[in-house]
C-alpha cells in the first residue's frame, strides 16, 4: 500500500510557502481567508503567480500542473485579504479554489464534475504530470540536497541552470556538509575542470585552476555574492560554513564581471536570513587534536515576518599533520533582512574572520619526488614563522519589483584584510639539500588590502510576440588597494633534516623594502537580453564595456607604473529545450585581463590579454526530477600573454590554448545521492619568448581528472537513520615547465557515515552523528606549481561531528 505522503504526491502538486511563518499560525480557514497582506505580483504565467502568492501568504496550494498550464494571471498589487488576492490572480482562468484546511488551498476547475478524477476500465487512476515544490529555489538561496536547479552566476539573473549557455557547477551547502569540507578548495574537489594545490596551501589561500587558468583574487575570478572580493590571493581563505553554495562558471565571463582571467569564476553565495526559524549547533573532534564548534541561527524577529536575521559562527582550534603548524580560526557572520512587502527587500551582510596558522614552506621538486624531507617536518623557525590574518566585510543588497515587470537591484560591499606573515623559504641554493642540510632564507611581510565594490542594475521582464524577454542593464564598480611591505633575510640559514637542528637565524634586513603600493579602479556598463521563443529556444546576448586604471609604486626602486585600459567584451549563446529534458547549447564568450607592469623591450605599454572561447554542450534534466547530467566541449585561447626571455626582457606575444571535455552527473533521488565528474584538459603554451615552454602543459593542470561520490540512506535495509557514503578522486600527472619529469598522478579515497539519532529515539529528534575520513588509504602525494613550489598532500584524517537542530 502507498503511504500517506506517497498518496499525496500521486494525487496532486503542492506549492508550500515559508515567507512569513507568523501568518501561518491561524487555526481556522476563515482566519486565513481574511488575513490582510501586502502583495506585489506582476502579470505572468498562472503557475508562477500562484507560487509567489503561496510564498507570501504562507499557504499550501494543491493542484495538478496541467490545471494551470496555458493560463496567465493579471497579477495583484496592494494590501488585500487572501480571498481577494487569490480571486484576482485567478481572474480570467475559469478556475476557482477552496480551503481544504487552515493553511491549505486547492485550486479547482468548476467545469469538471465534483472535481474528481475519471477511473480507467481496470479501476486505476490515470496520473497527470504534476509539480511538487516546496519553497521555490532562488538562485541566491539554499538548495535542498545536492542538485541545484537555478543560478545567477552565469547571467546575473535568477535563471534555470538548464537555460544557461555556459558550463556551470553548483556545490551546495548540503554537499559541503556531507563531505566535511573545511576549505573552499576541498569544497571543489568533486567538481570537473577545477584543480587545486595541496591542502597545506589551500587552507590559508583560495587559489584554483579552471581549464588551465589561474583563479585567485578578484581580478582573476574569485567572487562573493556576484561581486569581486579580495585584492590579493593571500588576504585569507573563505569559510565554507558561511556559504549557502559555491558556484563555478567555466570559461570567459568578462561580459558579466569585467576584468578576469579566461578560465572562469568561482562565485560564493553567503548565507542569508531565513523566514522559518533555524537553530543549529555542531561540535567536532578529529585528527591532529582538531576541535571545532559552529552554529547557525536564523528566523523572524517580528511577528509579521518583515524583519528576519541570520547569525553564523565557527571557532576552531587545531594542529595539522605538520609539526608546529596550527590551524586556528574564528569566523562570525551576521545578516539582517527587512521586507516590508513581497516586492521589496533590504539585506545587510557582514563577516569577520581571524586566522592563526603558519605558511607551509614550499620545497623543490627533487626533494618532494625523492621524499628526502619528511612530510610532517616543520621547515620554519619557531618564534619567527607566523600567518596572522584578519578579514572583514560589510555590505548590503536592495531589491524592489515594480508592477510593470521592472525590478531594481543594487548591492555594495566594503572589504579589508590585514595579514602579517613571516616564513622561511626553503631550497634556494642551486642544490636542494646537501649533506642533510636544507638551505633557507627568511621572508618577512605585511599585507594590507581593501576593496569597495558595487553593482546596480535594472531587469525588465516582458513579452513581445512569441518571445519572452529578460532584459538586464547595469553598471558595476571595483576599487582595490594593496599595500605590501616585504623584507628578506641578509644571510642563509640551514636546517638539519635528520635532527631538526638549525644553524643561523632569520637575520631579516628591514632596511630594504621589496614591497609595493598599488591601487586600481574598474568601471563597467553592461546590457544583456535573455530571449525565450515559443518556450523552446533560449537566446542569451550580452555586451559590456570596461574602463580600468591602476597605479603601482615600487618601494625598492621608487618607480611608478600606470595603466589605463578599456575593452569591449561580449557573449552570445543559444539553448534549445526539448520536452524530454534534453537541452543542447552553443556559446561564444570573451574575456580581458589588464597587465600591470613595465613596458616591453620595444618601449610599448603592456596591452590587456584577451580570451575567447567557443563552447558546445548538452544537459539532461527530466521534468520533475532531481537529476542533472551535463557535458561540454570547448576551445579557449588567450592572446597577448606577457612572457619573459632568459635575460628577463618582457614581451607580449604569448599565447595559451586550452581544449577539453567536461562531464558531470548529479543525482538526488530518494535514498541515493551521487556526484560524478570527469575532465579532459589540454592546456598548453602555444607561443612564448622562451622556446622551451612552447607545447608544455600548464602547471597544476592534468590532462585527466575523475571523481565519484555517492551516499545511500539505509532505511530500506532495516537500518533507520543510517547513511553511508564514500568517494574516489583521481588527479592525473601534471607538468613542471623546465624539467622533463612530471608530478605523478594520485588516487584518494574518502568515506562517510552518518546517523540520525532521532530515528533511534524520538527524544533525540534533531540530533545526528557524522564520521568522515579523508584520504582513507593514507596515500602519499604532492602538488607543484613550479619547480621549487611543491608541497605534500594531507595524510589520512578522521573527524567526528555531533549536530543538533531544533
Walkthrough of the structure:
- The chain is mostly beta strands.
- It folds into 3 domains: 4-133, Phage tail protein beta-alpha-beta fold (3-Layer(bab) Sandwich), CATH 3.55.50.30; 150-270, Ferric Hydroxamate Uptake Protein, Chain A, domain 1; 278-805, Beta Barrel (Maltoporin, Chain A), CATH 2.40.170.
- It contains 10 helices and 47 strands.
- The protein has a 22-stranded antiparallel barrel. The chain has a 5-stranded mixed β-sheet with strand order 7-8-4-1-9. Strands 12-18-19-16-17 form a 5-stranded mixed β-sheet.
- A hairpin with a 2-residue loop joins strand 14 and strand 15 (213-215).
- Helix 3 runs antiparallel to helix 5 (82-89).
- The longest helix has 12 residues, at 46-57.
- It is globular and about 90 Å long.
- The model is unreliable at 1-27 and 113-135 (pLDDT under 50).
Amino acid at each position: 500500500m502507498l503511504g500517506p505522503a506517497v498518496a499525496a504526491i500521486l494525487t496532486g502538486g503542492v506549492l508550500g510557502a515559508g515567507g512569513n511563518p507568523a501568518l501561518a499560525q491561524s487555526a481556522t480557514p476563515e482566519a486565513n481567508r481574511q488575513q490582510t497582506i501586502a502583495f506585489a505580483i506582476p502579470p505572468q504565467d498562472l503557475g508562477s503567480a500562484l507560487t509567489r502568492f503561496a510564498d507570501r501568504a504562507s499557504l499550501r496550494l494543491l493542484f495538478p500542473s496541467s490545471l494551470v498550464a496555458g493560463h496567465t494571471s493579471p497579477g495583484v498589487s496592494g494590501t488585500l485579504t487572501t480571498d481577494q488576492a487569490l480571486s484576482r490572480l485567478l481572474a480570467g482562468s475559469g478556475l476557482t479554489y477552496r480551503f481544504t484546511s487552515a493553511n491549505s488551498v486547492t485550486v479547482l476547475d468548476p467545469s469538471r464534475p465534483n472535481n474528481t478524477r475519471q477511473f480507467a476500465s481496470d479501476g486505476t487512476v490515470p496520473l497527470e504530470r504534476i509539480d511538487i515544490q516546496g519553497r521555490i529555489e532562488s538562485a541566491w538561496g539554499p538548495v535542498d540536497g545536492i542538485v541545484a536547479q537555478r543560478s545567477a552566476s552565469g547571467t546575473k539573473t535568477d535563471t534555470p541552470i538548464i537555460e544557461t549557455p555556459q558550463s556551470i557547477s553548483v556545490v551546495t551547502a548540503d554537499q559541503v556538509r556531507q563531505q566535511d569540507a573545511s576549505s573552499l578548495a576541498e569544497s571543489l574537489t568533486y567538481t570537473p575542470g577545477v584543480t587545486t594545490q595541496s591542502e597545506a596551501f589551500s587552507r590559508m589561500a583560495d587559489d584554483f585552476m579552471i581549464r588551465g587558468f589561474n583563479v585567485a583574487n578578484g581580478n582573476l575570478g574569485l567572487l562573493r555574492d556576484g561581486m569581486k572580493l579580495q585584492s590579493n590571493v593571500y588576504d585569507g581563505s573563505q569559510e565554507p560554513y558561511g556559504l549557502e553554495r559555491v558556484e563555478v562558471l567555466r570559461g570567459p565571463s568578462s561580459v558579466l564581471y569585467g576584468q578576469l582571467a579566461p578560465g572562469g569564476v568561482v562565485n560564493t553565495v553567503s548565507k542569508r536570513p531565513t523566514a522559518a526559524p533555524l537553530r543549529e549547533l555542531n561540535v567536532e573532534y578529529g585528527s591532529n587534536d582538531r576541535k571545532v564548534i559552529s552554529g547557525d541561527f536564523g528566523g523572524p524577529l517580528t511577528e509579521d515576518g518583515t524583519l528576519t536575521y541570520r547569525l553564523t559562527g565557527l571557532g576552531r582550534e587545531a594542529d595539522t599533520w605538520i609539526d608546529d603548524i596550527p590551524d586556528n580560526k574564528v569566523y562570525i557572520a551576521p545578516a539582517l533582512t527587512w521586507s516590508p512587502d513581497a516586492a521589496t527587500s533590504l539585506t545587510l551582510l557582514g563577516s569577520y574572520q581571524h586566522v592563526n596558522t603558519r605558511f607551509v614552506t614550499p620545497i623543490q621538486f627533487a626533494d618532494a619526488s625523492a621524499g628526502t624531507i619528511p612530510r610532517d617536518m616543520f621547515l620554519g623557525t619557531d618564534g619567527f614563522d607566523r600567518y596572522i590574518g584578519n578579514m572583514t566585510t560589510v555590505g548590503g543588497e536592495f531589491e524592489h519589483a515594480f508592477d510593470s515587470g521592472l525590478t531594481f537591484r543594487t548591492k555594495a560591499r566594503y572589504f579589508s584584510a590585514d595579514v602579517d606573515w613571516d616564513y622561511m623559504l626553503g631550497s634556494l641554493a642551486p642544490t636542494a639539500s646537501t649533506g642533510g642540510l636544507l638551505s633557507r632564507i627568511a621572508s618577512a611581510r605585511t599585507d594590507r588590502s581593501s576593496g569597495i565594490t558595487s553593482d546596480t542594475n535594472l531587469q525588465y521582464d516582458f513579452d513581445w510576440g512569441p518571445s519572452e524577454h529578460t532584459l538586464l542593464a547595469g553598471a558595476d564598480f571595483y576599487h582595490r588597494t594593496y599595500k605590501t611591505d616585504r623584507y628578506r633575510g641578509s644571510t642563509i640559514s640551514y636546517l638539519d633534516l635528520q635532527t631538526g637542528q638549525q644553524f643561523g637565524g632569520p637575520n631579516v634586513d628591514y632596511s630594504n623594502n621589496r614591497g609595493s603600493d598599488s591601487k586600481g579602479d574598474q568601471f563597467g556598463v553592461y546590457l544583456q537580453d535573455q530571449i525565450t521563443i515559443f518556450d523552446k529556444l533560449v537566446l542569451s546576448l550580452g555586451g559590456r564595456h570596461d574602463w580600468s586604471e591602476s597605479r603601482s609604486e615600487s618601494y625598492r626602486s621608487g618607480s611608478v607604473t600606470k595603466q589605463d585600459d578599456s575593452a569591449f567584451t561580449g557573449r552570445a549563446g543559444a539553448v534549445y529545450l526539448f520536452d524530454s529534458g534534453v537541452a543542447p547549447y552553443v556559446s561564444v564568450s570573451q574575456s580581458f585581463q589588464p597587465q600591470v607592469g613595465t613596458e616591453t623591450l620595444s618601449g610599448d605599454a603592456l596591452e590587456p590579454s584577451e580570451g575567447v572561447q567557443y563552447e558546445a554542450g548538452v544537459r539532461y534534466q527530466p521534468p520533475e526530477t532531481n537529476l542533472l547530467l551535463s557535458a561540454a566541449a570547448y576551445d579557449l585561447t588567450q592572446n597577448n600573454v606577457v612572457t619573459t626571455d632568459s635575460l628577463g626582457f618582457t614581451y607580449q606575444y604569448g599565447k595559451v590554448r586550452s581544449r577539453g571535455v567536461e562531464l558531470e552527473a548529479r543525482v538526488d533521488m530518494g535514498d541515493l545521492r551521487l556526484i560524478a565528474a570527469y575532465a579532459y584538459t589540454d592546456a598548453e603554451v602555444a607561443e612564448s619568448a622562451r622556446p622551451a615552454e612552447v607545447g608544455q602543459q600548464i602547471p597544476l593542470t592534468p590532462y585527466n581528472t575523475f571523481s565519484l561520490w555517492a551516499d545511500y540512506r539505509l532505511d530500506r535495509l532495516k537500518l533507520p537513520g543510517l547513511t553511508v557514503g564514500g568517494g574516489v578522486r583521481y588527479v592525473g600527472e601534471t607538468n613542471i615547465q623546465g624539467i622533463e619529469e612530471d608530478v605523478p598522478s594520485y588516487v584518494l579515497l574518502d568515506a562517510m557515515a552518518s546517523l540520525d539519532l532521532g530515528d533511534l529515539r524520538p527524544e533525540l529528534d534533531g540530533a545526528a552523528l557524522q564520521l568522515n575520513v579523508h584520504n582513507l588509504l593514507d596515500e602519499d602525494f604532492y602538488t607543484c606549481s613550479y619547480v621549487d613550489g611543491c608541497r605534500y598532500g594531507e595524510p589520512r584524517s578522521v573527524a567526528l561531528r555531533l549536530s543538533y537542530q531544533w
